[in-house]
Specification:
244 residues; 12 strands; 2 helices; 74% strand
Length: 244
C-alpha cells in the first residue's frame, strides 16, 4: 500500500515538473479509476483451478490500486505509458463458520509503446503504435478448519509485443471522443491479449479535462499444461487529465 501511495504522489507532482520540458514537447498525464468486472480462471501448477472470478462488487474486495497513463509527444512521435495495478482479496465462512476460505488476486498490467501520427486535421488525429505489455499476476487460495488448513499459490509473469491504433475526434470546443484498440501475443492458443477503450472527454479548464469511458481487456496465457490464465476484464473508467 505504501508503494501505491508513493506512486500516486509522484504522478500528482508531475504536472509541475512538466512545465519545464519545453523543446517542442507536449503531452498529458491521466489518473483514472477502472472499476471492472473480472471473469475467467487461473490454474495453478498442480493442475487444479484455484479461482474463478466473476464480480460486480470489485470495490468491496479492493485492498489497493494504482492506475495512471502518460504520453510525451514531439512532432509526429509519441511515447505512451500505462500502468494498472489492483490487489483484491475476499474471505468467506461456511458450514456454520467451521470452514474458512480466503482468496487473493494481484493483477499488474504495464504498457510501454511508441506511436506515430498518420493523420491530423482540425484537431482530428490518428496514431499507430507498437510496443510491449508486461503482465504480473499472482493468486492465492486457502481453506482452513480449526484443526488444519491448505493453501495454494500461482504466479504468472510475461511480456507481449503489441500493435495498435488510437484516435481523437473533437465534438466542440470542450467535448471530444478518444479511443484505442490493440492486440498482443499473437498466439490464439497459448498467448493472446487484446483491448478496446473508448471515452468522452470534457475540458473543464485550460489544461484539465475529465474522462468518462469504458475499457475491455482479454488476457490468455498458457505457460504450461498446469499454469494457465484466461481472464476478461471490463468496466467503466473515470479519470482526470492534465495537458501540457
Amino acid at each position: 500500500m505504501a508503494m501505491i501511495t508513493g506512486l500516486t504522489a509522484a504522478v500528482l507532482a508531475l504536472p509541475a515538473q512538466a512545465q519545464g520540458l519545453g523543446n517542442g514537447w507536449s503531452g498529458q498525464f491521466t489518473l483514472y479509476g477502472w472499476i471492472p468486472s473480472i471473469s475467467g480462471s487461473q490454474q495453478g501448477r498442480d493442475g487444479e483451478p484455484l479461482i474463478d472470478l466473476d464480480s460486480q462488487s470489485i470495490l468491496s474486495a479492493l485492498d489497493g490500486a494504482f492506475m495512471g497513463a502518460a504520453e510525451f509527444r514531439k512532432d509526429k512521435f509519441t511515447l505512451l505509458l500505462d500502468a494498472v495495478y489492483a490487489d483484491l482479496s475476499a474471505d468467506g465462512n461456511w458450514v456454520q463458520d467451521r470452514v474458512k476460505t480466503s482468496a487473493g488476486t494481484q493483477l499488474g498490467v504495464y504498457t510501454v509503446a511508441a506511436a506515430y501520427r498518420v493523420y491530423e486535421l482540425d484537431r482530428r488525429a490518428v496514431d499507430v503504435y507498437a510496443g510491449s505489455r508486461f503482465f504480473d499476476t499472482s493468486l492465492s487460495f486457502g481453506i482452513a478448519t480449526d484443526n488444519r488448513g491448505v493453501s495454494r499459490d500461482a504466479d504468472l509473469s510475461w511480456a507481449d509485443p503489441i500493435v495498435g491504433i488510437r484516435g481523437t475526434l473533437p465534438l466542440s470546443e470542450k467535448w471530444s471522443l478518444s479511443g484505442f484498440a490493440d492486440v498482443g501475443g499473437f498466439d490464439a492458443d497459448t498467448d493472446m491479449s487484446w483491448e478496446l477503450f473508448g471515452a468522452a472527454n470534457y475540458a473543464f479548464a485550460d489544461r484539465w479535462a475529465g474522462v468518462l469511458g469504458y475499457r475491455y481487456m482479454s488476457i490468455l496465457y498458457e505457460a504450461s499444461d498446469r499454469a494457465k490464465l484466461d481472464l476478461a476484464v471490463q468496466g467503466p473508467v473515470v479519470g482526470v487529465t492534465y495537458k501540457f
